[in-house]
Each structure stands twice: as structure tokens, then as C-alpha cells.
Design a protein that fits this description.
4 copies of one chain form a homotetramer.
Chain A: E1 6-12, H1 15-30, E2 34-41, H2 53-58, E3 63-67, H3 77-97, E4 101-105, H4 109-121, E5 124-128, H5 141-149, E6 152-155, H6 158-166, E7 174-176, H7 181-187, H8 193-200, E8 207-211, H9 222-240, E9 243-247, H10 255-265, E10 270-273, H11 278-287, E11 290-293, H12 297-300, H13 302-305, E12 309-312, E13 325-328, H14 332-344, H15 346-353, H16 364-374
Parallel strand pairs in A: 1-2, 1-4, 2-3, 4-5, 5-6, 6-7, 8-9, 8-11, 9-10, 11-12, 12-13
């Protein structure tokens, strides 16, 4: 009997989600057992965030729905109301497509919306990135709420898989795959520092990369926090004659305030870009001396690059630190001294070069494809979750 | 310094939620430290479900918003799309009211919507009824997802509180209060069987009460399952010369099919009512010989009444059984023989009369009021959850 | 050069809309110049309204989206909030399908939603049924609002086409097609009164048909109005030994109250049905002696059947009366005397048999297909409306 | 008997709407017969559009709801989906507040949403700004659709009032009030050119003001059209040694592209501002030599200032031209020669100084207050519209 093709509906709302999904859905679509369809939503559809729909289209995925749900406001209401709209819209898509799996990542609006829709529409929810013990931000619990609702889990570290077992998830549903985004890094062809400088119209020698997002729990301080960070980085670039390249923040409330600080602090030695093509971005990181800010990349991907990271503020607290991340407060002196160490202290740099990466190799996608291929949809127990304590 | 009044926004969507909330919000509003406001939504606003808004209004609560979100469809889309609409609407309410706490119960549309809105709007989520180890239904995981997002938990049994600790909730957030609905039972004045018979226009001597809801995971079988159950009950009432009184199901997909079976099977010895006032309902249960169906009342409240329960089918599986609940399959013979035992076997009846109720006494509301009174809102750590493994 | 296939997206929310659309979209899909796709929504997806999606599916149309938007409430909020949800959902569909035309009828939630979505999505709006000079109901103006937004108009009478010219619509956009639903009547094969009696399990000799909908402007009186009407009809059936067959009302606020009156007044001589298959329904009307209530059918279709109509109350006021419609108030005596005349006064009956039908023949669909076939989509002036005074 | 206070719910979504509403609601709240409440939504709540909520709050109105509905996307879906969300949210507000009137202006998302909600919620819709014979843009018909649904109309010119009579509106509902925004202009205290220069940090001598919005019917050309316009203005400012001050566009699709052109073309002689306080803005216009772009201000307000206007492109076509507006195409030469005439040709300037303003004086608000005061809410015929042909 011919095996039934499994229908995967992958959902992506922002570049950082797509980067993790890409290696997985790219493998799945090349595999004869799967049909892959994509829902593109949120920041992907916003020109203010670089209209990254274009990148997805040029990757030639089958985009079966575009869902505008991101609200143009900097108020706290933005995310909750956005989730409401997304759930309503996505239910319509799932009802039409009738996928076997909904595939999604992380802890954002898309993640909780997918979890809820899958649960009530009787579709298996496949969640990448559960079990992270991060805390300090009011929306961290969303990640664990997603895990409670997901039917299959792929985690980026063994420790995170263990966490899911601890909360009573049935072990057969939990898999340590590693971080799929690492594959992108490997696949991107080398571009020289010179070429990047040309593309960005910004002469790079020794430089730091800045990625900093707002925290919903301290939206009010977003401006001040970014301002302090950028003053420190700006001064350091001038004093030590290096450069800094920044990327615009995500869409969360507070992002507008961060953009305001960026506008004020940009200078000849510190330039910001709304969004960069993946090949430029990966090579930018490859040649960088430091990543500074509070992006999850510092935790999850920088170990693969053996890159020193300075995490300013409370975001990412509690996550598994490979040893490359230094947590600092909003204090210019401390930030600058951490930069000095990370960029110019050769002992420190050597230590980080020799660290072991707990976030897997560049084959996470293979593990995920294998699990989904072998999962027997006829076995209805996959649909009925049961706590194991 | 005068203590700040704490603003409580309680959310109720269906009679069964309101019955649990009532003793709590009634105590809170009588307490000088609190201001209680109510959001009434869902089935409360549906004439098809008895328009129970009227009961809430006659209880004189301050209803600050009415949210219509329940969709008139029997399709699987109903609940997910409804949650989306509810989240959007409720965000608007919370933004306007700016409560200190959002108070809600259980595992329904309201529960997950409140959890999400509270989380993103930076309001403390107070959840009653977490930690239940129920399984067998695709929407059971919603209850645990709510617990992941809630900031304060009140559980109906000690075992359920322990479960929340096991999933890593900080112990200071977890309280075993017992089931608040038990207070209602105590408070309702006695009405004789004769009087009830008159009010219902149905002569009651020895009788069973039927409450049966659809399961989203087996919506397709809703009609057949109800049909089988009612055939068994109907035959038994005639053979043994007793009566059966039924209540209409909740609003979930499949409810329409259940109503269809009811319409076909109603008879002189088995009558159904859309909804009953609390005082009638409680006395109906007090005088009953059996509760049959799959209502959570059988698990959570029947032990307080010392009432035998027959749970037909998989709903409520895994929950803490005080010993009064017998689980049976959709088999007419087995159902009828279980009825024989529960109603006419005096040894069995005596055994149940002597069981110990693990769901607390009739003072759960006092425990809840006390905890909320003492909770210091200035302590910002209440807003930032952290897993404890 | 091959001519481009024109993509038609037809939208239907309730049986009465589908009956008008059917002959048109059935002709269009058989025509080589068109591709027809269907959005099915609202009451079609409600079991409470007979789940008429099944009929559409058995007609084998290409249903590209199902939109649940109908709210389960009897409150005034129902329609406005429903329209909001429908607009959001339908925008997503139109963005995905990219039709050349959106085709819809009448003055209901679907009508105004389609008008708005078409207008902002730059799709030509084709509206059937504009220009009716009906008044007396708060939602009548919706019909003219739809006409202001529609790019092509097909009216059911010449007078209504003239009305559209009067409000400044460009004449080239306005076509008198007649009422497309008349074609259904012609096409339905004959079924004898006996056979119908058997199918309905109701012995019919001489009988009236009752169709009565609520008015949003007098929702509060819906129960009383239906009660009075049914008391009159019920008494008359008994006194004059005839039968009455009723159909359930539409979904508007007040419908629940109408259903309540129906439940109370149903009798051996007056039976109600939720919904009837088209072939049964048409033959039921063919053999009927009278249509009573306030359905637009009395105005728009009954003249084709040469059927006497009693319109109780203000709905349909101001519409073009072919002469077969008698308007009466909620007065039992007057209703009964109007029934006596319509059913037993042979002079009156003869007069109606000889009336001229101003609502066209049974070829409206041909006119519509012809216009849409010849409309040149390259001519961008079709997209830019301009008032002509 | 004490007269009932009339409850007015005014709805504003963007600065241009608020400017028209302000004199009216400011008069109403000072009047003992009225209670005024405000819904603030859309662009008012967007930092990207200057967060003008702050201005409304400093005017001390009673803001009873804030509705985020504006989607952060530049796609065509933005407005339709936004209207859907706004209708759902606003229905909730109206259900809660139960106003006697909903007061709104113009032809934007708020206008059609208010019209629909009022109509179904049985509240009188008071529309300011109907009857304009504008065409050329796909969303112009929205204005007339609003008029079909509104119960009371206030127009900005006598000609527009006549248009409403032509479409069959009952004359008793139609009032020529003039443009309420003119009152703002009168009330704003003088600020010298010098002071403005200081506040804007831009030295102004002789200058043009630029306000240009996207057209939904030609969204694709938004960038090119703005680019051409700005190139012409930029060159002219340099050649003739004058300045140009621009204001950011509204939120419609295409606005992102306009912002892109602005970013590229800003120069030492042409500066743009996101938003200006009313007192600055009015004085900026008072001292200006020209308004260029396609703002409705050029038609509706510039005659009051006796200010020459160049309208580039098709927006505003068909509207009543006081004689001060010159329509030109996207042609740099033609734009520059029109600028030469408007700024430096003294005969032309004199001609405009002597024109008669057909848009009323600065007392429109008084007329509106008077009509609403005298309108008898007990007369239920106000709620039932009827076409008069």
C-alpha cells in the first residue's frame, strides 16, 4: 500500500523564526513523504520590518496564506490583540488546508497561536525550541504554555529536553534535535570582509554586531536601556577605533523607543540596518569580534561561531550558557570594560574558541525529518496527551 | 498610609464557571480591600443556553463588559475562532479597566484567553482549578497551559497542587483551596422533592440526573454516544419505575448532536431542561439517587453530596476519584447494570456515604480571599515567573 | 490572443441568498469564459439553521473558503460584530484568490462585507438586488450602501434600476436583469401534493405557507408579533379546516424569540420545518393557497407563482407590489379576514392569477452572464466610480 | 420635566478627523444638554504617526475606549481588515456606552465602521462631511455609503447638501453647516514666522507646505509620484531660494513608499515633520505661500486662508474648487511652473486673495450643536430612513 503523504503546515512570522524553520522545511519538501505549505504572517508582511516575504518567495516555498495581524501601535495591547487576530485567521487556514502537522518555533505570537489552533482543530502540533529555562521577561512562560499544548517537541539542547520530561511530557514526544538554524550558517558561502564592507557601504575592520530587542516587562525603559547601550558602544568604537553594525529590533512593544534611540546614536562608527539578506548576515557574524545586545542568537548560535557575546540586561537569563555569554547591567563603564575583554583580551578569546557547543551540530533538521517520517498518524494516542509524573 | 484597593476583574463564560466563581467574588466584593468587576461572555449571552446573564445581573455584580464570541456553528473551528475573538475583545477591556488581578477558572475558552491577555498586559493571572491530571480529551492540555501562564494558582485538591509543583511552578504561587462551588451547595436553602416536582412540572420519586457534554476529540461520535446513554437510561427508568432529569450540554462542537439525541429520546420518564436556577438545581442533586453522564461535577462536587456517579466514556479520565465515580463504556447493558448497583444496591450506597471528600470543605473562597489580600503588589517578582526544577 | 478567463468569487451566507445566486453561478461555471469559486459562510455553517452547506456541496461548486462568523446570541450586537469578523476573514480570502469579480446579493451581512472588501481590495463588486425602495426597518439602508460601493448592478425590476440612476450611479453600470431565483422555480420538477405530504409526514390539502423573520428595529416585539400571527393562523386552520406549513426564520436578532413562539403554537394543523430541500420547497409553494409572514419572497417571487400573499407588519414596506401582496397589522381579526379573502374568495384569487409580474422572467441569469462576459477588465474606468447628477 | 441629557459618542482615528471634530465636541461638552465621550483609535495610537493620543488627552476629553486596529503592513489588505477589526471592537463599546448619537467625519475606516455599527445598534449616526462629489480614487464611494447609513448629515458646502438630497436623503436630515475645522484656524493665536523657524529648527522666509497622501487605487505608483513631486519641489526651492516644509502622510497603503521618497529627497531647503502641534501647524499655513500635494485641506480649508494650492494627481478630483486649487499631473516642468505662478505671480495671488469661500465661516460647530439640541429623540422616525425620490 502506498504510504500517505504527510501534509506539513509551517508558520513563520518573523525573520528569526524563518531562519530556524528554513533548514527543516527545505529538507521536508525535498523528501518524497511530505508536502510542505507555508503561512507567512506578522513582521514578514511589514515594510517597516524589511518586507521579508520577498526572501521567502525567492526560496520558492508554497505560501498558502498571508496573515496580516501585527498592529501598528507601541502599546501593551499590541501582542495580545495580535494573537487574537492571528488565531481567528489561522483557524480558517487550518480548516481549509487540513494539514497533518502544524510546525512552528519559539515563544512568540505565532507559537502560542499555532499551539491553540492545532489543539482545537485536532492537528498534531510540532514545536521546535521548547524547554528553555529562560526567565526575567513576562512573556517567557508562553514557551512552556506552547510545550503543554504541543504533541511533538524538538529541543535545542539536551538540558531543555530534560526540562520537558520534568514537566510531565511523555518521553516519546520529546526529542533533542539541536538548533536547526546552525545549518544555515554552515551552508552560507564565504564572503570576505571587504565585500561585506562594500555591500553595506561601511568600511569594516574590527567590529561588533548589535542586536537588541525590547522586553514587554520593561517596555517603559526600552528607550533608556538602548540609549545607555548605544552610548557605551558608540564611545568604545571611537576610543578603540573599531566599528559597530546594528540590526533593527523585532516588533514587540517598545521597539519604537529602541528605534528612536538608534536614530539619535547612529554615527560614522556605528551604523544600523533594517534587515540583511541571510548570506550577508551570516558572514557579518563570521567576521565579527563580538555580539552585543540581548538576542537569543547570543545563546543559541554564537557558540557555533565561537563568538564572544555580551548580553545587556535581563533577557535570556536562565538559559543554558555555553560559556561565551557575559551578562552585564545597563552601566556604561561595565559594558565598555566587557567589550574590552571580549574584543582585545586574547586569553578570553582563546577560552571561548575552545568551548563546547551544547546546541547540537548542523544536522538538527535531519533528526526532525526522521522523527516526522516515522511517526504513525494512524496511532491516535499521539492526539491525546497525558501527563506522566 | 491607606492601603490601595485591589481591582479584580473576574471573567465568566458559562454557568459552570460562574458557579465556581460566585462564592469567591461574592466574598471579595464584601471585603473592604477589593473592588470586583465582571466580564460576562460566551454562553451566558446566548438564549440557546438559557441567557444566564439574567442570573448574574440579579446577583447585582458590576458587569463592565459583555463579550459575544461564541460562534453559531457545530464545526471544529468554533472554539479556536471563538478564542481568537475573545482575546481581541478582552484585551480592550483589560486595557480600559487596568485591573490588578484577572480571576478565572478551569480549562475553557475563557481560561486560556484570560491567561494570554493577563500575561501580555502585565496583569496578575489568578487561576482556579489547575493541576488536574485529567486526560483523554484533546483539550485537556489547555488546563496546564493556563497554569504555565497563571501567576497564582488555587487548586481543588492537594494532589493537584502537588502536580503544579512537579511542573516547576514556584511553591509560593500554589495554594490548595478546595472547590469554591461547594459553598453554593451549603448556602442553598432546602426545597422538598415535592416542590421541585411542581416547579419542573415533573413528578419525581426516585431519580437520576443526567449531564453529558461533547468531547472535541470525538465530536463525530457525540450523537451515537448520547443516543446509547439515553437509550440505556430511558429503558432503565421504565423497567425500574424511576425518573431521570437531564440538563442541556455546554456549547462545544458536538453539542448540537447531543441535543438531537435528547430530542429523540425524551419521554414521560426522562425530561430535559435547558438550564435551572441554582436553588432548584442544588436541591435536585440533593434528592437524587445518581448522577450519570460525564460532567466534572461528578468528580468535583458529587463527593460533597455523597452521591454515586456513573461516568460514561473517556471524559474526566485520570482525575482524582473520591471513590464515588464508576467509569463505564458506551454499552447499554453495562450502563444499566451500573445504574442498578448505584441506585438499588444498599451496600454500594452505604460505601459511598462513608467516603472522604478530597476536594475540600465549603470554605475555599475564604482561603482565596486571604491569599489575595496578603499578596503584595509592590513585589514585582510576582510578575516574573521562573521555573523551579 | 486567447481571452483571459474571468475569476468570479461568489459569496453566500444563507439559503435565501444561495437560491438567488444558484442560477447565475451555475450558468457561469458552464461558460468557458469564467471560473467560479464560492465562499460559504454564516447560517450555511450552522446546524441550528439546517447546515445547508451540504446542499451546496452536493451542487458540486468549488468551495474555496468556509467562514464562521455568525454569533450565537440574540443580542443587538450579533450582526455588527458578525460583519466585523466576516470582513476580516473575507479580506484574507480575496487576497489569496485574487478574483476579478465578487458576486453577491441583497442587504445582509454578506452584502455589506463584500461591498467593503471589494472596494478596498480593488476588485469589481457585482451586486444583485439593489435599488429596492424598501423602508421601515433599520437595516434597509444597507442595501443602498451596497449600491454606492458596487461597480456593477443587477436589479430585480426596472423601477429599482431607475432608482439607482436617481442616486447618481453611472447608467452603464446599471442593468435590469430580473430576479434570478425565478429560474429555480421553473427548473424544479413537479412533485404532487400527496408526495410532499408523505415527505413532510403531514397531510396537506388546502394550506398556507408561513415565513416570518425578525426586524432589527423591533427586536423586542419579535415574540409578540410572531405569537399574534401564529394564533391567528392556528385558529384559522382549525376553523376552516386547512393546514399551515412554516419554515424557521433567518439568523437575525429576535429569531430566538420567534422560535419560542413557534414552539408554543405548533399544532396538528400547523407544523414548522427548519429548512426544506429546494425541490420540496418549490412544490410546496406551487400547491399552496397563500404565503403569509414577511418574507421578501412574497414580493419578489410570489408574483411568478401567481400566489396571494399576506405581509404582516412593516417589513417589505415601500417595495414594488405586483398586486398580490396585502399588508396587514398585528391584529388577529384582520389577519384572519385577510386569510379568508386570499384563500376562499374566488374573485380575489382570479384577480391575482391575472397580474403582471414586474420582476422579470426566468432568464435573469442569462442577462447577468452576458454583461459580465462583455465587460472589459482592461478598461480601468470600471474601477473608479463617479457620481452622475 | 427635566430634559434628558443626550449622550454623544465621537470617534476619531487620525489627526485630520480630530481637527474637524474638535470645535464640535468642545462646544457640545460645554453645553448643559450633552454628555460627550470619545473613542480614540487607529493612527492616534501609533507612535509611527506621532502618538496624537497625547494631544487629545491634554484637551481633557473623556476617552472611554482606545481601539488599536491599524495593521502594520503596506499591503492592500490593511484597510479592509482594519475596518473589520474596528467594527468588532466598536460594537462592544457602543453596546456598553449606549450613546444617543455616534458622531464622526469623512470617508475613512472610522467613518464606514461608525455608520455600520450605528445602523445595527439602533443609534443615530451623525456624519460630518457627506455629499462631496470627489472621484478618481477607489475609496471615494465610501463617503456616499456612509451617507446612505447616516441619520443626520452636516455638509461642508451647500452644493454637497444638494447632492445628498439628490440621492434621496430626506431633506429634514440634511444640514449645510460648513467645515468645523475653520474654527480651529480662527482660534489659534498668532505665532511669528521667526518663532516657527525656531521651533522647527528650520529658517523660514518664503515657503511652500507639502502634504501628500497615497491613493489606494494607485498604490503601486505611490513612490514614483512622491519622488517626482519632491524632485520638482526640491529643485524649485533651490532655484528660487525658498523653503519647503512637509508633513508625513496618513496610514493608507502606499504610505510606506511615500516615506521612502521623503527620506531620499529631504534636503537643506526641504524638511519633513511627522506631525505638528495644532498651533504650530496653523501658523505654518498662515505664513505659507503655497500648499502643494493632494490633501483635502487644499480644497476645504485653504480658501479660508486665501492660500494658493497645487493639487498634484487625481486625488480630490470633482470636489468643489473655490478657485484656489490648480490641478496638475506628475510632470516636473508643469509642477515647477505652477509653483512659479502661485508663489511669485502677483496677479494670480491677488485673484486668490479675493475669492469667496464656499465652505462656510468659522461657526459650523454652532449649527451642529443647535441641530442636535433640537432633535427630538422620542420621534422614532429619525431611526427609520426612507428614500425620497
Amino acid at each position: 500500500m502506498a504510504k500517505k503523504i504527510k501534509k506539513i503546515l509551517a508558520v513563520t512570522g518573523i525573520r528569526s523564526e524563518y531562519d530556524i524553520l528554513f533548514p527543516v522545511i527545505d529538507s521536508l519538501r525535498k523528501h518524497k513523504s511530505f508536502q510542505v505549505q507555508l503561512v507567512v504572517c506578522g513582521a514578514h508582511l511589514s515594510d517597516w520590518h524589511g518586507d521579508t516575504l520577498k526572501d521567502i518567495e525567492s526560496d520558492k516555498f508554497d505560501v498558502v496564506e498571508k496573515i496580516d495581524y501585527l498592529l501598528m501601535t507601541n502599546r501593551k495591547t499590541q501582542r495580545a490583540k495580535g494573537i487574537g487576530n492571528l488565531i481567528s485567521s489561522l483557524t480558517q487556514t487550518v480548516d481549509r488546508i487540513k494539514p497533518d502537522f502544524i510546525l512552528y518555533v519559539g515563544d512568540r505570537e505565532e507559537s502560542i497561536a499555532c499551539s491553540i489552533v492545532a489543539n482545537y482543530m485536532n492537528v498534531l502540533a510540532v514545536h521546535i525550541g521548547g524547554g528553555d529555562s529562560v526567565y526575567g521577561n513576562a512573556d517567557d512562560p508562553i514557551r512552556f504554555a506552547c510545550s503543554e499544548l504541543a504533541h511533538v517537541h524538538f529541543t535545542t539542547s539536551q538540558q531543555y529536553a530534560d526540562n520537558l520530561i520534568k514537566i510531565g511530557e511523555e518521553p516519546r514526544r520529546v526529542f533533542f534535535s539541536g538548533n536547526p538554524a546552525l545549518k544555515n550558517i554552515k551552508d552560507v558561502p564565504s564572503i570576505s570582509k571587504k565585500e561585506i564592507s562594500k555591500k553595506l557601504d561601511f568600511n569594516l575592520n574590527k567590529y561588533a554586531v548589535i542586536i537588541k530587542h525590547p522586553l514587554s516587562s520593561s517596555k517603559e525603559e526600552s528607550y533608556y536601556q538602548m540609549k545607555t547601550t548605544l552610548e557605551a558602544v558608540g564611545e568604545f568604537t571611537k576610543e578603540r577605533n573599531i566599528e559597530a553594525v546594528g540590526i533593527f529590533p523585532n516588533t514587540d512593544p517598545g521597539s519604537y523607543d529602541i528605534l528612536r534611540a538608534i536614530k539619535e546614536e547612529e554615527s560614522n562608527s556605528m551604523k544600523f540596518f533594517k534587515n540583511l539578506p541571510r548570506n550577508i548576515f551570516v558572514n557579518l557574524i563570521r567576521h565579527a569580534s563580538l555580539l552585543i545586545g540581548n538576542s537569543s542568537m547570543g545563546i543559541l548560535e554564537a557558540p557555533y561561531y565561537k563568538l564572544p557575546v555580551i548580553n545587556v540586561g535581563d533577557r535570556q537569563l536562565g538559559r543554558l550558557n555555553a560559556g561565551n555569554v557575559k551578562f552585564v547591567n545597563y552601566d556604561k563603564k561595565i559594558i565598555k570594560s566587557a567589550m574590552e575583554e571580549a574584543i582585545f583580551n586574547s586569553t578570553y578569546i582563546e577560552k571561548i574558541k575552545s568551548l563546547k557547543n551544547p546546541y547540537g551540530g548542523d544536522d538538527a533538521h535531519e533528526r526532525i525529518v526522521e522523527v516526522l517520517e516515522n511517526l504513525n498518524l494512524e496511532d491516535k494516542t499521539w492526539y491525546i496527551k497525558q501527563k506522566v509524573f
